[in-house]
Amino acid sequence: MATYKTPKMSKPKKVGSRTAVLIASGDLRESANSVCWPAQQQLEADTVAAFKALGWKIVRAGSTQPHGFISSQSLGREVFSTIHPDAPLVVAEAVWQYSHHVLAGLLAHRGPVLILANWSGQWPGLVGALNLRGSLTKAGRKYSLLWSEDFADKTFRKKLESWCRTGKIKHDLSHVQALKTNKLPGKERKLGEALAEQLKQRYAIMGVFDEGCMGMFNAIIPDHLLNPTGVFKERLSQSALYFAATQVSDDEARAVRKWYDDAGMKFNTGPNDATDLTDAQILMQAKTYIAAVRIADEFGCDAIGIQYQQGLKDLLPASDLVEGTLNCTQRPPVTRADGSIIREGEAITHFNEADECAGLDGLITHRVWTAMGMCPDNTLHDLRWGDPDASGTTDEYVWVFEISGSVPPTHFADSWKSATGERQPAMYFRLGGSTIKGVSKAGEIVWSRIYVADDALHMDLGRGKAIDLPPQETQRRWQSTTPQWPIMHGVTYGVSRDQMMAKHQANHIQVVYADNEKSADRALAAKAAMATAMGIQVNLCGSAKDGTPLSQRLAKL
After folding, report:
1. Domain 19-166 maps to which CATH number in 3.40.50.300, 3.30.540.10, 3.40.50.10940, 3.90.1720.10?
2. 207 near 299, Cβ under 8 Å?
3. What's residue 376's pLDDT?
4. Backbone angles phi, psi at 37, to 5 degrees
5. Which of 285, 324, 424, 528 could lock 318 by a disulfide, CB 3.0 to 4.6 Å apart?
6. Is residue 207 within 8 Å of residue 303, measured between CB atoms?
7. Which residue, among 511, 548, 297, has the nearest Cα to 401 in the 3D structure?
């Protein structure tokens, strides 16, 4: 008779009553985890105090030497094997985190889950929390999200008490209105529907240089949801981009650098490759730009997405300069072998960090804005942080929209003349590379986000504006976040800080300028119509500039 050796599995102990387990998902890069650990420690101390005030105890899972971040999927597997599946679980986030480090464990966990974030711009903790939130929404895993500046205000304590008691938190979502296409203005509805029909007759191609960048499960659109919209993926390899960049001649790269200089961009360069932005780094970025344009042309891609931080970061300088240049209608010419210029005077839609939801959104925006005769240059930003204006310029709540790559200089007041190139922080990019630093100009914007929920594509769509703030206030915001990166002072119409956090399903927010208030409203209507005709479920968020709910405003256009 055969005998088998049955594996022995240790069973995690149940936690006591009024006890929650705390974990922290972190970066993949140890340099970032080490630098950011003190901020995480402060968040965790505040968390312990907040739960203690409610008569609860926090038990931490995972090592705290040299830091307490779960820094890989394999480490996440080990940590979750020690956690009882029914325990109340708190994922505390003060930094950027890779959601796949903890996603598998969270999907298997049976107890209530709370994503808890501090309200700080120092490290992208809010960005990390929103990414994990979008990933869990896509996966269909229930959770709660909570945030606070000091973990002591009455609203925070009331919501935390609700989670401790029921495992759930309710937020105000009164700003969200489901789109009714029959209420859209006829001219814009017909335009959007015609653009969607065009996609079905001649589908678009989205080139993706390796999926899953930075653990963003929420940034991958399943083919069975994407293809019915009229968009198909061309799965490209980062190694092909690297090889193509190495085949670009020095003369071609120097021509691109000269174009930047002639356009008025200023690069802050130095001699030390480890700490400074160097001319050699810029030339390699120029080669990557040329290679990306040629690959997009070779494969007929309507949009492309470079992974940005992983993979190529150990081979090439950062792709920021490349990405912002691609998204700009004013960009250095790139030729084919026959000497013809590739898509002259046209932006090549690029989605930072290979975020396919942003790529689909950018593709829709490009077509709608082009059809309406407006500049289609658009970008994603991190929903990085927000703060009341300390200068007294405005009483409106001002968001810091900020992203390292992909911002086109046409978003700045004087285009390329307003752009500065600074070295990427060494903790993220050993090989450096120039950013495109600048302040986004004042103007009317349309903001949006496509995301996956309930095995369907959704779009949240709203209106807002970018505003000018005094230089000292801009510097305060830069120094509170990442001063090397481009920034937009964003105001969302009819959507408060907490309403945005309660609803937004991603770390990224898509923004595009319109010529004026009326054209912004009309373009939003056309974009909503196009997205709906593509099979995307659209929510209108907030109001028009005059405070009228968007659904009512569009019906009166």
Report:
1. 3.40.50.10940
2. yes
3. 98
4. -60, -40
5. 424
6. yes
7. 511
